[in-house]
Specification:
The protein contains 7 helices and 12 strands. By secondary structure, it is an alpha+beta fold.
């Protein structure tokens, strides 16, 4: 049991529900990973409130209708633990699963050590720049080890770095604390080849006219990481500019500067409405791959569109297309 912490809503702190230990949060994320590996949503339901709120790509559903009912072979997972807000975020890369996925899941706990809310962003072929193989490759080259105690940034500094990134989307005068080096991994395509030893985060370009709201934070001071769930406007061109897409950005912050950015973004239409100029994708699905039956009803996809491995230059051109 952990005690309630009364926290006023501040710019730097999302509404918090409780404080808890890293050991408790680690055991909960372990349970989540077991449930997803086995496709046994009931194993997560046992530590959740009866009326747990579950959303998948911002569509509300029950756990027994979710991706948690699918056994998934994971090539990588990473969890960050927020002991102040009693919340977690877990990144899953399933590149060798029969159906490739990259998934980001945020869990919130109440004062009775029960999950009160789960938000998952489930990306697969057709979502923004999706390439699970690329995601696994570039992630394997990165270092996300815990930060030494005497070198850890404060929660406020870590979250401020992520907020500066999105504040820059509407004001090009905002200075983002990108480190050197810095790289962004979006859907599976990395900006690193643009500048392997420098700041490829800036080189890839950024929007300047988008207002990003509804930010939900998970901050792990020991890992130097903040994850932000949000609605990304204008990402899917098949929708109106004001329609936001489910999005997750995870920032690794070292000495106040952003070292890595991992993003997951879900679209309504396969290819995000690019009409042949779609984000770079992985290779075509093999005959063994299938579209999720759940997703078919909740998120219709058009027939397969032009696919193929696109190199970093194509990705850069795409990003610059959204700078203005």
């Amino acid at each position: 049991m952990h005690t309630l912490a009364v926290v006023k809503p501040l710019f730097f702190v999302a509404v918090a529900s409780a404080a808890c230990t890293r050991e408790f949060l680690k055991s909960a994320t372990d349970r989540y990973l077991i449930a997803q590996t086995e496709g046994a949503s009931s194993k997560l339901a046992t530590i959740a409130v009866t009326n747990v709120t579950y959303t998948e790509n911002e569509v509300m559903m029950t756990l027994d209708r979710s991706v948690l009912t699918e056994p998934i072979k994971m090539d990588h997972n990473r969890s960050i633990l927020d002991t102040v807000q009693c919340a977690t975020f877990t990144e899953i890369i399933a590149a060798t699963n029969i159906h490739q996925y990259v998934i980001g899941t945020r869990m919130q706990f109440n004062s009775n050590d029960q999950i009160s809310k789960i938000e998952s962003i489930v990306t697969d072929r057709g979502d923004w720049a999706f390439n699970a193989t690329g995601y696994a490759y570039w992630n394997s080259l990165e270092n996300w080890d815990p930060v030494a105690a005497d070198e850890q940034d404060s929660r406020e500094i870590i979250q401020a770095a992520g907020d500066a990134y999105f504040d820059r989307f509407k004001d090009e005068n905002v200075v983002i604390p990108f480190g050197v080096p810095c790289s962004r991994l979006e859907g599976g395509f990395s900006t690193a080849p643009l500048n392997l030893t420098g700041d490829s985060c800036t080189a890839a370009g950024l929007p300047s006219t988008l207002v990003v709201t509804n930010r939900r934070y998970v901050v792990d001071q020991e890992m130097g990481v903040v994850n932000i769930f949000l609605g990304f406007p204008g990402l899917d061109l098949s929708q109106s500019m004001n329609t936001t897409m489910p999005d997750s950005h995870m920032f690794r912050v070292e000495s106040g500067r952003i070292r890595y950015v991992h993003t997951l973004s879900s679209c309504v239409q396969a290819g995000c409405g690019m009409n042949g100029e779609d984000p770079p994708q992985g290779p075509p699905a093999s005959s063994r791959q299938r579209l999720r039956s759940i997703r078919t009803s909740l998120k219709p996809r058009f027939p397969p569109y032009r696919l193929g491995d696109r190199h970093a230059e194509g990705f850069l051109n795409l990003v610059h297309k959204f700078k203005d």
